[in-house]
Amino acid sequence: MISAHAKDSIERIVFKAAKSRLTMDAGDVCEIVPAGAHGAHSLPDANLVVLTISGIAFRLLLIVHFDEDERTHQYFVKEESERAFLEVFLEICNLCCGAVNQELLNYFPDLGMSTPYVLSARCMPYLEALKPEFLASYAVTINNAVGLGATVCVCAHAPIDFVADVSAVEDTSGELELF
To answer: How far apart are CA 90 and CA 96, in angstroms?
Structure first.
């Protein structure tokens, strides 16, 4: 029910959002490869930030895998910050999902986005119970130092076929979206 064009478009939208929202500084390098490719590691004992975008035709889960190790903590929580790691990281993941949502709104009206929540990585095998039409996992590396994972799970309720144009780079950081 999800065409090859749509799967490719979803992947490109997610990659663009990850590269623009998971990095803390414009000069940071974010590499994304399929999980297991070229020695890319998975994070089997990680926690998961789960975000959902839902519409009439589909439900998309964007899952960010993370370990709160020293490198990850230092990257996302600057020394002068008094905020807790999880508070900062959930906000960053929500911005990433929001960027995906904004791109998808160009093709699908009336999308809704959930509040992020955290689960154990032990929940990953249960994604299959959702009977996804598209399920892909990626290793995300920032500045060759911070390792994250990302999983995209799309359950279709109707045929989905679109080709996304993600060539334009927009900086909407700091914008407030009202509902």
So the answer is: 10
